Amino acid sequence: MPVSQAPKSHVGARGGIPDATVSRLPMYHRSLVALSNRGTILVSSEELADAAGVSSAKLRKDLSFLGSYGTRGVGYEVEFLLYQIARALGLTQEWSVVIVGVGNLGHALAGYPGFASRGFKVVGLFDADPALIGEEVTVAGRAVVVRDVKELAQTVRSTGASIGVIATPEASAQQVCNSLVAHGVTSILNFATVLLEVPEGVHVRRVDLATELQILAFHEQRKSQMVLAQETA
Amino acid sequence: MPVSQAPKSHVGARGGIPDATVSRLPMYHRSLVALSNRGTILVSSEELADAAGVSSAKLRKDLSFLGSYGTRGVGYEVEFLLYQIARALGLTQEWSVVIVGVGNLGHALAGYPGFASRGFKVVGLFDADPALIGEEVTVAGRAVVVRDVKELAQTVRSTGASIGVIATPEASAQQVCNSLVAHGVTSILNFATVLLEVPEGVHVRRVDLATELQILAFHEQRKSQMVLAQETA
DNA sequence: TAGATTGTTAATCGATTAACAATC
DNA sequence: TAGATTGTTAATCGATTAACAATC
């Protein structure tokens, strides 16, 4: 009884790109940019998968969710596929971003060259520390002045920024988050250790440096245990 | 025909903790530390799951891979569970870490308070820039001097550091990685955009700020598309 | 004993993979 | 036509979830 027609197509078809696939699209995008810079015209799924560090089967499956952008027996046109992935990710439009917290991490983020090249425009830098307010930070060649976090509302409203980055100490993260959300930000990248409470519809991604190190430690420990087990055996 | 006995138990049983579970252990650890600081003695799976932002079923399933550390009808002892998770993650031992690349990001990492409190000791800071070499950076109350990346080998050997953090520009990342691996580092946290080539047995985790922002942009775009679709309908 | 909560089971779901038909 | 490579299928695998028996 083949009843497997409707259920899967609901997810796989129009619009619904699996999370696992979305998380790999930036890698494909980056690999294609590198190929493009080298002047490569065509690329096979095998070559691109190699560059991105995945299997060719996975790559083809992933791309199939975006559409049918290759040519059988030939491969993919680099520029065309690059555009299609950029479009799927939303990189063909400009996104206004505000960064709250301009300590070392905030500085690192503001100076990150990967932002501007992918359509992210830092329209505001904010901090609560008077020592930092007024400082000029060079972001993608433009000078951006660090402003008081109290002026956040105005900037978010006037620029229509929909993405906010929180790089503050833990203690102020939730408060900053509330303020961002209240003024129209609906996507937040959180570098603070706390789990943010947000209303439904607001998307939060948390990047925690300690988490990454801890996972690394776990694997490191497992290695030494394996060595020990071998010695015992 | 119930043949499902051996296959699953191979992964679920001794030692083999699923990747998805490992990735959540740091969150549980953090939540337990918070509870411990508040003086909480006992916690139920429901409460802890809430604090960590997961379902109680998922939490109990995750914890069951570590062992049976709760009491039915009662809950989990905070201090005991905290220790067990720390032990599983390898946080009961000290890990020596070297950080290569002491720009804004490297500074942010070195100054990150979450390192020392979880047993990570920064034993070396390295850079290739003469302007940075010699600078004293305060790491967990100790002064650590930034040294020339050429002296990396000596420090890794003498301290037995097994974890390396790469916060260099893209161009030097692979070279630094090779050097780390050559001198005994077997786990690497990579903040550079490139995909590092490493020999088998070396564990690499990559954290890419641009990737995170791109995934955020994807979801943000999907929201606006949904709004558009609603308006059309 | 009655109430509470864990640890485990089994069903479901989503992601991965290998194989290959479609097609350039 | 022969060779190459995509896009899709179907099988497998791992993760999630709800329900509940075990047990404090």
Order of helices and strands of chain A: HHEHHEEHEHHEEEHEHEEH
The CATH class assignment of the largest domain in chain A is Alpha Beta
Secondary-structure-derived class of chain A: alpha/beta
Domains of chain A, number: 2
Chain pair sharing the greatest interface: A-B, 60 and 60 residues
Cα-based radius of gyration of chain A, to the nearest Å: 22 Å
Fourth-tier CATH superfamily name of the largest domain in chain A:
NAD(P)-binding Rossmann-like Domain
Low-confidence stretches of chain A: 1-15
Secondary-structure blueprint:
2 copies of one chain form a homodimer.
Chain A: H1 6-12, H2 19-37, E1 42-43, H3 45-52, H4 56-66, E2 70-71, E3 75-77, H5 78-89, E4 95-100, H6 104-110, H7 113-116, E5 120-127, E6 136-139, E7 142-148, H8 152-159, E8 163-166, H9 170-182, E9 187-190, E10 203-206, H10 209-232
Helix pairs in contact in A: 2-3, 2-5, 3-4
The structure holds a DNA duplex (24 and 24 nucleotides).
Write structural notes for this entry:
Two copies of one chain form a homodimer. Chain A has 233 residues and is of the alpha/beta class. Chain A has two domains: 19-89, Winged helix-like DNA-binding domain superfamily/Winged helix DNA-binding domain (Arc Repressor Mutant, subunit A, Orthogonal Bundle), CATH 1.10.10.10; 95-211, NAD(P)-binding Rossmann-like Domain (Rossmann fold, 3-Layer(aba) Sandwich). Chain A is built from ten helices and ten strands. Chain A has helices at 6-12, 19-37, 45-52, 56-66, 78-89, 104-110, 113-116, 152-159, 170-182, 209-232; strands at residues 42-43, 70-71, 75-77, 95-100, 120-127, 136-139, 142-148, 163-166, 187-190, 203-206. Chain A has a seven-stranded mixed beta sheet with strand order 6-7-5-4-8-9-10, sandwiched between helices. In chain A, strands 1-3-2 form a three-stranded antiparallel beta sheet. In chain A, helix 2 (19-37) packs across helix 3, helix 2 runs antiparallel to helix 5 (78-89) and helix 3 (45-52) crosses helix 4 (56-66). The first copy, chain A, is globular, with a radius of gyration of 22 Å. The termini of chain A are far apart. In chain A, 37% of the residues are buried. The interface between A and B is large, with 60 and 60 residues.
